[in-house]
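User:
Note these tokens:
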Amino acid sequence: MPINRRIFLGAGLTTAAAFGSLPARERPGKPKPVYQMGSRRELFLDDFLVERTRGKLSFELHHPIAREQVIHHTDSWEGTSSSYHSVIQDGDTYRLYYRGFNFNLVNNQIRPTNKEVTCYAESRDGIHWVKPELGLFAHAGSKKNNIIWQGPGSHNFSPFLDQRPGCPANERFKAFGGVKTDGGMLLFSSADGIRWKQVHPKAVITRGAFDSANIGFWDPTIGKYRAYWRYFTAGITEANNWKPAGIRAIRTAVSDDLLTWKDEHDLAYTHSPKQQMYTNNILPYFRAPHILLGFPMRYVERGWSPSMRALPDLKQRKVRAAAHLRYGTAITETQIMASRDGVKFNRWNEAFLPPGIQRPDSWYYAHNDVAWNMVTTKSSLPGAPDELSFYASSGKWHGEGSKLTRHTLRQDGFVSVTSPYYGGELLTRPLTFKGSRLTVNFATSAAGTLKVEFQTPDGKPVKGFTLADADETFGDELDRTLTWRGSSDVSSLAGRPLRLRITLSDTDLYSIKFS
């Protein structure tokens, strides 16, 4: 089991500034304004909902658990550099897209053995995948393959399901693809996710580096499309030609029609050092779409050292380093970050998906880069709720071809507010809600417990909903309805500014929601 990372909150009044990875949205002691929560689900990826805590609470970052290898890119049009995966859950069909590409290291040089193509795989459960023979494009004189696109955009072809209300059925799939030599980000569309056409003859976003997976999606919270693409900080313009400089970074913009983009910004990070990020993998979280989650691949150049030489496959590491030092001494892993406006992100400095236990095909440049998007899959435990599945790469650079491994995580299970047995409590900012019941995604031990009290904004317990009225809640459930003296009805409190005082003992609290 992976080790979870905890950031402890000391006794007394505590704001997120005290524990680093979560940003302080207000100065210590300054109350936060009333939040119109409505019936939104709120997670604890930031301190937005939290005003103060008492006891030894922690915000605990959880990590996906590796399951099984689901894809091995061994076909001749695939190979060791098959990458930039995107996964889409389309009704009962799971769709996987990725770049097919292979190279060999010969005389200290990377030598491609095939052209870059975009490939497709399909599944009914997200676990067992097939590569259908589509007959669309020829490779080595045969169309018996799963290639869905080749040509401009194949380097980083990144599809998404267009969920804009009123989107025509024959354009319900969209994709971005393209690098600087293509002019930037090209736009594609498809009716079935398999047969694609280029929408516009020229790139729709032209200022950037683009040599990564550049993605887009419909954001239902703002009613616009968002795009996120590869950039370099301190980019400069000379004679209208953009030139990269600085560190690998991410840029964003919004659009009404996917053709005209405005409000460009470099992403900003609260209480986080400068880091090289190769991909972004940003998307609205489907259970709380007002929260944008990102899973960027952190790129760390470590150089030669005794520890570097102790990592797996030293001989092959030296071969890669002879072609370029970073191919042998850079290491990658996946982080997690969250945003409520699409520009300012709370980025956890600790790894969400670290390289893990040393083994062959691990601890190298491009290891553990995750596919864009997550899907829900059945648990291996009969009767347990569906889990989130992430797909991460390994096996690159050498051998038959890269591999894709499925990892699972509890729904909403990215970060929890956690208390040891001796307990702690959390007080929310003032909020208003819609609905008649309060549900929590939580897990206790057999001896653990959770209770919730409603308070007025000035801290007075609400009659009938005090801590003494609250029933002890224990168990492990995604949506447990809370009760006070046996009743779950909180409709009499709806629309009133109130606070929640949440007490925890040997408990993880992942999210809360009124409905």
About this structure: The CA atoms of residues 123 and 129 lie 5 Å apart. The chain has a mean pLDDT of 91. The longest strand covers residues 438-455. DSSP finds three helices and 40 strands in the chain.
